[in-house]
Amino acid sequence: MRKSYLLHFLLIICLALGGTEKAVAVKANPNPVTITQPDGSTLTIRIHGDENLHYTTTIDGYLIRRDNDGYFKYVDMDADGSLRITSQTANNIDNRDNEEQQTVSRLVPAKKLQAQLTKSHSGIAKKPGKVLGRHIVSPSLPAGENAAESQYLVILVNFKDCTFHFAQNDFDLWLNEPGYDVDGGTGSVKDYYRDNSMGKFIPNFTVVGPYTLAHEQSYYAANADDGSGDINPRAMVIEACNLAKENNPQIDFSIFDNDKDGYMDNVNIIYAGYSEASTGDENDMWPHSWTLGEEAITIDGITINNYGCSAELVGASGIKMDGIGTFTHEFGHILGLKDLYDTDDYLNGYGLDPGAYTLYASGSYNNDSRTPPYLMAFERMQMGWCDPIELSEPEDVALQPIYTNEARYINAQPGREEGTGFEWFVLENRQREGWDTYLPAHGLLIYHYDYTQEMVEEYWSVNGPNNNSKHRCLYIKPADGIDDTNTRNGDTYPGRSGNTEFTDTSTPNSLNWAGEATNTPVTNIREEGGIIYFQVKGGVSAQSILKTLTPQNIRDTSVEAQAVVVNKTQSIREMGFCWATQEEPTIDSYRHTVEIADTISYIITGLEAGTQYNVRAYMILEDNSVIYGAAIPFSTECQVAVAPYIADFTSWTDGEPDCWKIVDNNKDGTTWIFDENADGMLYQFDYWNNADDWLISTRMLVPENGCLYFVRGVVETTTVENLDIYVSTHSREIEDFHLVKRYSFADNFGVQVPEEIDLKEYEGQEIYIAFVCHSEKLQGSLWLWQIYLASKLDTPRITKFESTDNGLYLEWTPIENAVRYYLEFSEVTDEVYTNAVFVPVSDLYVTDGNADISTGTIFFSENGVVETRDYPDGIIDCMFIVTTSGPTGTSLLTIEGTLDGTTWEQIGPSIRKSAYDNEGSEHLLSSYLQNKLYRKLRITCQHGGRNLKIKYFTLQYNDGYVCNMLSEGYVENSFVNIIETTPDEFLSGKKYAATVYSGDGVLFYDASETAYFSAPDNVSLHAVDKAFAVVENGNVCIRNLAQHTRVLCSTADGVLLYNNIVDGNECSFGVGGYQGVLIIRLIHNEEGRIIKLVVNP
């Protein structure tokens, strides 16, 4: 081994590169934060970045900043690429009015503004500081002896407009008291460093203040115009130091120069109020470590340059003293410790960090910042506190927890030239005890550590070891193979996945960055009593090894356990499985014996639904010794959901909603979460990766007339994202699902859209439903609400709608199992109702050739014909963009319309495309559609080598008449009397409409066919308005026609029954026995009218 040279190299590099050009800082709070606006309304925000660059967004990803009045408002991008605050106050999604929704629809999400957010910061430079001398951080001590305490100054400061809530003594205890446990804490800052250094480094903190600074908080803490950080933190530090000396002349500041180099090692400022990392408020200071640079001051003969600062309070509201996590993080920077989160604003992609396993990612927030995790072995090694032992020869290892200061490593570049660094795989035992109590999981943690000289110079030296997403210098090799923030509980071995090996061919593997084998297999990993056992290169002793496999076919009361015999040193007397709710079941727990074999399995029954168990295989050998496989946790499914069932996502366990399952199938760390503010499930898409994320239901029993209902919503329209609905009748494994429905995000945005999935074909079966986001890059966000399994009620049919002595009487067919009904009663106006949509995929049909269709999009790569559905009241406008691709040739696009479904007329000139055009050309057909009222459109492509893509295909069409709602509400019976408010109110010639829904107490189902009532009236504005239609003896009779009126009559699904120009004032025609709704279109000169007539049996 060359351990001594490697450690020497490490210490030299830490000393040389201890200071960086940018301030080092705590990572932004990874959780959404709810703040209060000046008007008392609440807003949930997300905070991104660190001290050097940070910004705030709404929960759905739109950039916001506070204005001069303290309101968070949206930020827009001008034509020149500059960012400016708009006048629109930001609200949560469910509180946005139409005006705000329109504003948001025009904004660019923050993820697409990375260039604008980062371009002004590449030149920011801050002078480097020093790190504490090694003889202070890691002195040479006799075995078992602790180091002398080193001394540090902590100054509490008020701002002129913000003062402390807690006393000096509170912070003295917080920093120095042994076993400090206020608010559930695990210890003081002094405890943390004593425990992690094994007594080699014990800081003692002298606390003074609080002193009030000369200016308001914003003078020191407001963000610079370019967003690069706080504008004047150095002034805060200088004032604080001078005030501390003025008020404490007896304190000799030279005692805080522990390494006697003429500089105070570090001064620590705790300022009143909150941290911007937790509030997003630009007037709050962001905790950080930096230097005074050229503004350094001298007191008592020593120079004060290095400083760190953090906030008094935790969170964004309330009065609660901050935990020690942030202070401990910032203080560690003066020792030379580096941030492990991505600190370069994602310029080289998003470098996923180790999360809660380290103080230098999100671990500083563990237990509300009161229990930061133990330092990792490599960090201890950098400080000179730990001496990991290389794994190079066959060995049987029993690895103690990290708090005992043990760690092992595999040298991934054993032939590397001395003095040029190293590349290792580090193995450490993490147990949920002490400072590690709040880790995601326990077991063997393995991480890839690249401290080669080239990586040190490029990344470690700038406090960015994980800035390059394609070459992270410190990342976990997750046991479950999923490198994902949301599945950190699967990172340890054997852990949840039961992974017992780490080799050159395993998943994950031990190949180095160059793809070369390390030839140091670690196998037979197991955990017993908090100790991790494994063998290296086959080990030195023959061991009987039994491997528990991941449980299969997990149901609510049963599971299939499996295991294989890896090796046996003597005969086996008994084999089986044991299981329990505790972590390490034994044969004294529940157990079942099976027939002895190399591969065994058993279906365990009688389990409790919705309960977490651990299962492992065992074998009893000839000498009566018991050999166990790894204990693998699993959770039984909840009891089968039966209708009516409403999904409740408010309770989560291990990163998943209770009874449901989340699969981050593309393993990008971005997946489904619960948005507490919107009270629904949220998928916030990732900027760099294609989405493939599954939200899988509990097992459901499909009832008679079974349907699944849910509400979806997006803010930003796009045509590259889809919500897919899948069904599985067997398991929750992805390969068992099949697609049943696809929704494009382009069809509705800025509104909540109810959806229905017909499950009748699965009646009586137990199934799983999966909601899956599939998309390309540059996505928005999707919400889901009110997922509801129900037995759909029948639709009412209105049988009477007539006048009475004092109003109107309405009656409909009673519906079995209906709890109540919902009635809508309105007045029909003369105003035509128009609707505009991106044409949904359900309204497009390929009638000839080939075309790829999706909402708002038609793509032709060969000849093809696409028709729209029938719009009975007429299409009045159409617009779209045509882009082209393909190598050569000329393709022709023709748009046609029809009035009767048979005769087609070309609309405007054909569109000829002969050149590549990725941007596309806009086509507006308004002038060609004026007064036409075509019922359908047909799009034909004559493909001549150039591919054509119609984007943002938008139609505006008439859809009956505007109805003014007069009354709506619940009705208990299947009839209602509508009482007039003035005499003969309903006999004035106006037309009224009524619609009824049946409900089961949770949901109201499909609307009845609208029924109409009108009394005669002599007033008519247009010739076509005088006409009326009735059914007599099975024939349709139309009277009061103007001469030369064209009459077209068709069924509701577009079948033409009559088409004629009437010379007289009336006409009569048969409908061939048709029953149902007829659509009668009258056209006279430039006037048009639609009459809907019902032919009853």
Automatic annotation (TrEMBL):
Keyword Hydrolase: yes
Signal peptide: 1-18
Region span, Disordered: 485-508
Keywords: Hydrolase, Metalloprotease, Protease, Signal
SUPFAM superfamilies reported for this sequence: Metalloproteases ('zincins'), catalytic domain (SSF55486)
Any single GO BP term: proteolysis
Domain of life: Bacteria
Domain Cleaved adhesin, chain residue ranges per copy: 651-739
Keyword field contains Signal: yes
Domain Peptidase M6-like intervals: 172-370
Segments of skewed composition (Polar residues): 497-508
Matches recorded under Gene3D superfamilies: 2.60.120.200
Pfam families: Cleaved_Adhesin (PF07675), Peptidase_M6 (PF05547)
Listed InterPro entries: Cleaved_adhesin, Peptidase_M6-like_domain
GO molecular function: metallopeptidase activity
Name of the protein this chain belongs to: M6 family metalloprotease domain-containing protein
The species this protein was found in: Candidatus Barnesiella excrementipullorum
